[in-house]
Amino acid sequence: MVIIMKPHAPKEEILVLKGKLENQGFQVSVTDGENYCVIGLIGDTSKVEVGKIQANEYVEKVLKVQQSYKLANRLFHPEDTVVDINGASIGGSSDLAVIAGPCSVESEEQIVEIAKSVKKSGAKFLRGGAFKPRTSPYSFQGLKTRGLDLLKTAREETGLPIVTEIMSPNMIDKFVEDVDIIQVGARNMQNFDLLKELGKTRKPILLKRGLSATIEELLMSAEYIMSEGNENVILCERGIRTFENYTRNTLDLSAIPAIKKLSHLPVIVDPSHAAGLWWMVEPLAKAAVAVGADGLIIEVHNDPENALCDGQQSITPKRFENLMCDINKLVGAGVRPVYSSANV
Ligand code: PEP
Ligand code: MN
């Protein structure tokens, strides 16, 4: 960290600040320039409260060299994290992990039929919302615990591990018991109480990027979970709010190489919520593979026109089958880049 003092900052004030920083355990060097005095800090600055330094009336600017996240940082953990889910894995050199299923669980027939078809096409995990975060309180809110039971039935029928979204810390025990990967949705990415409680479990957590969250904010949210001891975090780019409104969100494909450089955590892409349009799911899914995503999460519905949620962005099982065929060809052709601390 570098602190630039204001021109003509009194010498004694510089020494007071230097002393304070030394007391916090940093190695501090003071360099006097012609106009500015620059203080350099060596040590683990990830926990420094920059705001407090900036509040000093003689400080002109603070430049952070090190990121505030540590456990999620590739710098301190160069090898890729591989998250194990009952023998299936996501991250590192694992196969592309494809999670597929409806936005919401609607009935036993619906979830079992979709689970069987996506499994046949090569999906390795089943998704399905039981507790739905809807913009309107009058929209379908999910089947709640009945939805979890139906997901378990679909898991029994197919063997696919299940992924579903949690909304409240009150439900954590139930989710730990019932679910294989707990999803934290975009709207809860900064629900810090929820993140901390999930950090106390050892369940794999699928953490989706917030609607207007920066990459750094996403990684800080991962840090919340990890700092409580749970290192099984999978990140998800699902599109962000921009001025563009043709699509529901804007898929930030550059987030994938950026996250791969900054972090060792696996990162997957959700082309369904990014586009909000079923016909864009295929090209965006392929693009995600080409930029090096560790996996995909795709909404598949057997009757999109009558879906209770997100039919407009759901692809049919047949389209999913074709997409998986194309994706396998892409993967077979070696288009997936491999990121490591040596090449990013
Ligand atoms: C979902 O996956 O069903 C969902 C609501 O996604 P997001 O949190 O990304 O909007
Ligand atoms: Mn959805």
Describe what you observe in this structure:
- The protein is of the alpha/beta class.
- The protein folds into 2 domains: 2-63, Phospho-2-dehydro-3-deoxyheptonate aldolase, domain 1 (Alpha-Beta Plaits, 2-Layer Sandwich); 83-332, TIM Barrel (Alpha-Beta Barrel), CATH 3.20.20.70.
- Helices cover 34% and strands 18% of the residues.
- It has 11 helices and 14 strands.
- The protein has helices spanning 11-23, 50-54, 108-121, 145-158, 172-178, 192-199, 215-227, 255-262, 271-275, 278-290, 317-332; strands spanning 2-5, 27-32, 37-42, 59-63, 83-85, 88-90, 97-101, 125-127, 162-166, 181-184, 205-208, 233-237, 267-269, 295-299.
- An 8-stranded parallel beta barrel has the order 7-8-9-10-11-12-13-14, surrounded by 6 helices. Strands 2-3-1-4 form a 4-stranded antiparallel beta sheet.
- Helix 10 (278-290) packs parallel to helix 11 (317-332).
- The protein is elongated, with a radius of gyration of 23 Å.
- The two termini are 22 Å apart.
- The structure holds phosphoenolpyruvate and manganese (II) ion (MN).
- Manganese (II) ion binds next to loops.
